[in-house]
Structure formats: C-alpha cells, structure tokens
C-alpha cells in the first residue's frame, strides 16, 4: 500500500513528464512548423530577388520585344487582337510556371548536395506538411514573377492586359504554378546533382513551354501536330490563362471547353500531388 501511494504521489508531482516513446506530441496539422518552412523558403528566394524575381521579368519582356518586332509588324492580329496582346498572357504564365519549377526543384536537391537535408527531414513535419510548405513557397515565387512580368508588359506600348474572365486568370495561373511546383519537387527528390535538375528544365520544361501555343495558335499546325499539342498540359494552362484576358482561346469554340480544361488540370494536379506525396513518404533517395 505504501509503495502504491508513493507511485501515485510521484505521478501527481510530475504532470509534465514526457509521453511514452512513439506517442506523437503534435496532433493534427503542425501549423507553426508549416508556416516556418514556408517563410524559410520564401525568404530564401527573396534574399536574391534580383535574380529570382526581376531577372525573369526582364528576360520575358525581351521575348515580347523580339517576337513583336519579328512577327507583329504591319498590324498583325491573332484571335482578333494585336500580336503583342496575344503573346503577353502566354509569356506571363510561362514565366510563372518556369520559376515555380526552379524554386521547388532546388529545395531538397540543395540539401542533399550540401549535406543539410537533415534540417528538412528531422523537424516534426509530416510528408504532407513538408510538401505543402515547399509547394506554397514555389507558387508564391511564381505569382511574384507573374506580377513583375505583367507590370513590365503593361508599360510596353501596344500591349493590353484588360481582364475578360478573372476566374480563368486566377485558376489557370494557380494550376500552372502548382503543376510545375509538383514536377519540380519530384525532380528535386530524384536528382543527385544540379546537372540532373538542369536536364529536366532544359529538355522537358522549356520545350513543353515553348511548344504549347505561347507564340501561335495551334490551328495553324498540321492535324498531327495539333493532336500532339493537345496532349501537352502546358497548352491548356497557357490557352486558358490567355482566355482570361482575351475572352477567347484555341482550346475550343465554347466556354464549356475552357471549363473542361480547368477541371482536367485540377484532376491532373491531384494525381501528380498523390504521386509526389507517395514518393516523398517512401523516402526514396532522401533517407537511403
């Protein structure tokens, strides 16, 4: 009896004792950890914003200048608008996607190369929270780059960016940034050196971006190449984003075709997110 009373008194005296090993302390979503990871990733690219935000805006503006001078002379119109106004939306969302990919593809890869990957794997963050923080930061960079590019293009003579469908601008912009953020995170998990990352960027992301109808409508292509273009998810992002500004696109003749593309992109991103989550949870090339 005396021993039992002593144990009870010790239990009452130490209410803050550590829980048994393996029993989680944080339940639900670790909001503080998720927010900390997001802020860390955002501050990382903002420290070099000349390179990560403003340089892409200048590069994209040069694309607009060169193609407008080369193809937009003599009042050429595409989809009933001046060529510069036709090209501008596609360039904006293309810059958003490419920079979202660049941001998420760097996070885990840099940690693996520098030996600091433990700083991301050891904190009490689930795989979903780790993925969410990195993806959210990459989308944030894409939005900031898109805003900088749009600001530069508005100042360029002959470009009109008056919105026709705000929902399409927001939806397709987010879907494009999320899609490339997920692809970038998968690349970051798979890659073992920066050459691997550059290979995906140069041989997959860049060609799919440039051959997705950014500078032309696919109706000008042969039927076989039109079919190939319609298999490219980048095409639907760029055409849908352009629809938000011009009120028309080469996806289809009706607004319902654009809506179907919006739903299709959401499903595609969901599948890509599940794949990314499963790969991240498996620890492949991260915990070996």
UniProtKB/TrEMBL annotation:
Its main location: membrane. PROSITE patterns: ABC_TM2. It is found in: Cell inner membrane; Membrane. One of its GO terms (molecular function) is ABC-type transporter activity. It is a multi-pass membrane protein. GO terms for cellular component: ATP-binding cassette (ABC) transporter complex. Residues 47-283 form the ABC transmembrane type-2 domain. The chain crosses the membrane at residues 53-71, 130-156, 168-191, 203-222, 257-280. It comes from the Bacteria. Keywords: Cell membrane, Membrane, Transmembrane, Transmembrane helix, Transport. Belongs to the ABC-2 integral membrane protein family. This is Transport permease protein. It comes from Pontixanthobacter aestiaquae.
């Amino acid at each position: 009896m005396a021993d039992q009373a002593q144990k009870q008194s010790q239990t009452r005296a130490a209410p803050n004792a550590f829980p048994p090993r393996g029993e989680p302390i944080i339940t639900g979503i670790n909001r503080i950890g998720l927010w900390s990871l997001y802020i860390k990733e955002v501050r990382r690219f903002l420290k070099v914003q000349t390179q990560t935000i403003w340089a892409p805006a200048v590069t994209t503006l040069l694309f607009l200048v060169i193609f407008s001078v080369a193809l937009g002379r003599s009042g050429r119109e595409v989809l009933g608008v001046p060529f510069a106004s036709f090209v501008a939306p596609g360039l904006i969302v293309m810059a958003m996607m490419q920079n979202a990919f660049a941001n998420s593809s760097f996070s885990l890869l840099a940690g693996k190369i520098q030996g600091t990957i433990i700083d991301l794997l050891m904190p009490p963050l689930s795989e979903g929270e780790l993925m969410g923080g990195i993806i959210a930061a990459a989308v944030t960079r894409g939005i900031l780059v898109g805003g900088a590019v749009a600001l530069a293009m508005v100042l360029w003579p002959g470009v009109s960016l008056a919105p026709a469908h705000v929902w399409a601008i927001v939806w397709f912009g987010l879907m494009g940034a999320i899609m490339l953020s997920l692809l970038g995170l998968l690349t970051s998990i798979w890659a073992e050196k920066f050459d691997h990352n550059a290979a995906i960027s140069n041989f997959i992301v860049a060609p799919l971006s440039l051959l997705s109808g950014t500078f032309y409508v696919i109706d000008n292509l042969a039927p076989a190449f039109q079919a190939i273009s319609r298999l490219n998810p980048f095409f639907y992002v760029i055409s849908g984003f352009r629809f938000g500004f011009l009120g028309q696109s080469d996806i289809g003749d009706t607004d319902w075709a654009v809506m179907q593309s919006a739903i299709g992109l959401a499903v595609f991103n969901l599948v890509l997110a599940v794949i990314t989550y499963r790969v991240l949870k498996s620890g492949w090339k991260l915990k070996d």
